[in-house]
Amino acid sequence: LNRRLAEFGTTIFAEMSALAARTGAINLGQGFPDTDGPEEVREAAVRALRDGRGNQYPPGPGVPELRAAVAAHQERRYGLSFDPDTEVLVTAGATEAIAASLLALLEPGDEVVALEPYYDSYAAAIAMAGGTRVPVTLRPHTTDEGPVFRLDLDELRDAVTDRTRLLLLNTPHNPTGTVLTRAELAAIAELAVERDLLVVTDEVYEHLVFDTAEHIPLATFPGMRERTVTIGSAGKTFSFTGWKVGWVTAAPALVTAVRSAKQYLTYVASGPFQYAIAEALALPESYFGAYREDMRAKRDLLAAGLAEAGFGVFRPAGTYFVTTDIRPLGESDGFAFCRGLPERAGVVGVPNAVFYDHRDAGAPYVRFAFCKRIPVLEEAVGRLKALA
Ligand code: PMP
Ligand code: GLN
């Protein structure tokens, strides 16, 4: 492994899913649903396969049906209009969209300001692009609704230097469940305009926001439409994480740049699934509402269970993850805790420290995924209560 990638061995998700498989523990580590997405969307993929749509290389930017569906979704939900031909790019999942964006937009040595903890592929993709990551740490705060992680806007401002090329954002945020507010996003937008920064914003959990939280795409703020690369994924929204269909929406020059990098990574994304996701994006609002409601109920179950089991619980406003504090259990090292948890309780979680450069800041936090069937979550909670 070369020096750029030396620090990135096996991803924590592979390590923890292997641990779950080896020990037979309930896997609340890697974030994937244990129920597949809508039957009609699966049928659409089967039809595409049978009818020979997408069995050979689809067009580089994505099949026209999916690009049109992505544009229609952004328009319908957010009032953002994108030209499907010049402003939408289909990728092999959000992971490729992130990598291609950074490879296309960074010069070696450029600084990328990213919220910490960050999804693990960010650090590796920044490194592959020859950039330097500058983490801004989300800090725990106590609120009327309980503890949450919040962005300190002054810290964000201070992190921007003359070498900063772009901000890499993620809202709703994995792993903390934080959803950036309108005021926070407005301040980020002002900063980006003032310092002439590009923003790559990972909005793969856009449909998973709960209670009073609202997902507002950064691209809707003044001055942002032309400097923002927005990333979405069918994996999260339709519970088909194995299909690896993602997309980018941005101004033509940015999409052209990202497409240049994407061409030499995968050339194109999987054909038949693109047709199926085009149909999925056109599902009625009732699908999205029911999905959100289902996940909210699961969040409530797991969050309450973890609290009863003695964890400190950061109630997530979005995503399908709960971040916990293990110090009330008399523990302080999330790594050691997660490595021992299958043996002690038959459950797998992920130590948040892997998502930090400032490992100490993340040491006592552990993430559990709630995108699992209710009986599975109930069983996991029962086992975790035995820890106390
Ligand atoms: N970004 C975030 C914040 C994620 O949590 C994930 C998946 N866990 C991805 C990107 C990757 O998405 P995909 O599977 O579409 O590549
Ligand atoms: N995004 C998922 C998570 O955060 C996992 C994705 C992966 O395994 N790379 O758990």
From TrEMBL:
EC number: 2.6.1.-
Classification via CDD domains: AAT_like
A family per Pfam: Aminotran_1_2
GO-annotated molecular function: transaminase activity
Keyword Mitochondrion in record: no
Cofactor(s) demanded: pyridoxal 5'-phosphate
Stated name of the protein: Pyridoxal phosphate-dependent aminotransferase
Source organism per UniProt: Streptomyces parvulus
